[in-house]
Amino acid sequence: MSLLEAKRLEKHYGDHVVLERLDFRVEAGDFVTLVGASGCGKTTFLKMLLGTERISRGSLTLDQRPIPEEPGPDRGVVFQKYSVFPHLTVLGNVMIAEELSQSRWLGKSFGTARRQARDKAMARIEEVGLANALGKYPHELSGGMQQRLAIAQALMMRPRILLLDEPFGALDPGIRQDMHELILTLWKEQQLTIFMITHDLKEAFALGTRLWVFDKLRHDPQAPEAFGATITYDLPIGERQPPADLSARLSERGLKTLTQETLL
Amino acid sequence: MKRLINLTPSRGGRWLLGLLPFLVVAMVYLSLSNARLAENPNDRLLPAPATMANTFYTMASEENQRTGQIVLWADTFASLERLLIGVAISALIGLSVGLINGGLPLIRAKFSPLVTVISLIPPMAILPILFIAFGTGEAAKIALIVIGVTPFLIRDLQGHALRLPDEQLIKAQTLGGNSWQVLTRVLLPQLTPRLLNATRLALGTAWLFLIAAEAIAAQEGLGYRIFLVRRYLSMDVILPYVAWITLLAFLLDQLLARTSRIAFPWYHAEEGDKP
Ligand SMILES: Nc1ncnc2c1ncn2[C@@H]1O[C@H](COP(=O)(O)OP(=O)(O)OP(=O)(O)O)[C@@H](O)[C@H]1O
Ligand SMILES: [Mg+2]
């Protein structure tokens, strides 16, 4: 039984076909990395999984049921930006996840419950290395720190599916390495299913068990919006290192120029 | 040489630059007043600063024989009470309706057009209706302020709620938040500083309606006093009263501004406010 399944899935914005002919099965525990040219519809795809963008045609099922049309705690997310709450401190941003589930009415907890929430949040915050910025507001953090905060926040709910939209784009290589390890640990520990968009092919290979390349199969120069992107390659990744002859292999398989320009 | 847009005054310079226009105005007034008084010592139109200070001091310290009250303070308290109650009611309505309108599309679809239409009614035009409905007491004056200010607050807050990135609302839902929690834990805290700042802008309007209502029907109040002594051409009362009202308005504005900056530093960082 697959966790997620898409059949002839399409997404249009008016006459603009963004995604078409998506057919796939994703098993629980898969770590899918998504690459593709800028503007080809990767974020849109993630939003469909999230339930915030409607499906235009075809079907997308989660556990054999149509994917819910609104976001829920089973699908965590880290966006490209605006992922944390500007009015809460680092601690508040991570604690809010616990507080929302503890107190249905106030969304705030007190006493023992609060201490527990705090402890849980602290553990997550330490994992992402923000322990010395507990009382800071997001505007006082760098872009990379905000992104790490967003990851800590998304993982509080122990979602089944984690959607990451270029989460490490703004991080320096050292921290990026730490974050990779963190994500992999959490992925194994919590048996997460992860979808991660990235522009870094090395990263895609280092983390994923499957690599999806989004690109257009058909192209009409007169009407560039008539055809959408689809998953042109679905590569299982065995080894943890990107193969040395990667770019050669991709172009050998006829990878389209757009993707080559941005990725290779 | 730096570009003009990059030149910022130093701290001391800022004060001086801010003070300069006031000094110029004072000088102009003094010379005009002196010229008129030299011609006619009993001229009432541009009284000398000393005359105004005397009158003002009398009003601020001597009890009125008839009522036993000190006029300036009685006026000030009456006006401030009306203003603050009116603005507080408006803020409360503005925040709740703005929150619900901004957060719940179903309700917004129903109420948004109504709010827009109401905000277009000139409040002064319905003042007679208010006097008929509420009598000429406090209620009518407060109602005028509320009617004048609330639609603006609602529209501003609703707009702000709609401009908040969708990502935040989605994020809250993925963290398990229900509708109520998204409203109270994500929207409400972010609308509160916006309310303070919208209220600052609305205070000018609130003063306008207060003075207008007081001018038409009141027994005390800053606006009432000004319109009362107008009959005697008592510029020595009117001018200090105007200055006094301006000072009060300035203090209220600063109070809100400071509160907002201290309580919601993140809001001002987000809005890109400069000191
Ligand atoms: N709300 C919308 N209305 C209309 N068109 C949209 C909308 N959102 C996205 N699009 C279009 O869909 C296409 C895909 O956008 P998307 O954000 O998914 O790209 P992306 O692959 O995530 O790009 P990037 O790598 O730059 O983040 C773009 O051409 C964009 O113009
Ligand atoms: Mg994107």
Automatic annotation (TrEMBL), chain A:
Database matches in InterPro entries: AAA+_ATPase, ABC_transporter-like_ATP-bd, ABC_transporter-like_CS, ABC_transporter_ATP-bind, P-loop_NTPase
Ranges for domain ABC transporter: 4-241
Pfam families recorded: ABC_tran
Family annotation (SUPFAM superfamilies): P-loop containing nucleoside triphosphate hydrolases
Keywords: ATP-binding, Cell membrane, Membrane, Nucleotide-binding, Translocase, Transport
Gene3D superfamilies documented for this protein: P-loop containing nucleotide triphosphate hydrolases
Membrane-crossing residue ranges in chain numbering: none
Domain of life: Bacteria
GO molecular function: ATP binding; ATP hydrolysis activity
Family membership noted in the UniProt record: Belongs to the ABC transporter superfamily.
Record's protein name: NitT/TauT family transport system ATP-binding protein
Annotated organism of origin: Franzmannia pantelleriensis
Automatic annotation (TrEMBL), chain B:
PROSITE patterns linked to this entry: ABC_TM1 (PS50928)
Record localization: Cell membrane
One of the Pfam families matching this protein, by short name: BPD_transp_1
InterPro entries (UniProt xref): MetI-like, MetI-like_sf
SUPFAM superfamilies, per database record: MetI-like (SSF161098)
Domain named ABC transmembrane type-1: residues: 76-256
Topology within the bilayer: Multi-pass membrane protein
Keywords: Cell membrane, Membrane, Transmembrane, Transmembrane helix, Transport
Transmembrane segments: 12-32, 83-107, 114-133, 201-218, 238-257
One Gene Ontology cellular component: plasma membrane
Main location group: membrane
GO biological process: transmembrane transport
Family from the record: Belongs to the binding-protein-dependent transport system permease family.
Name used for this protein in its record: NitT/TauT family transport system permease protein
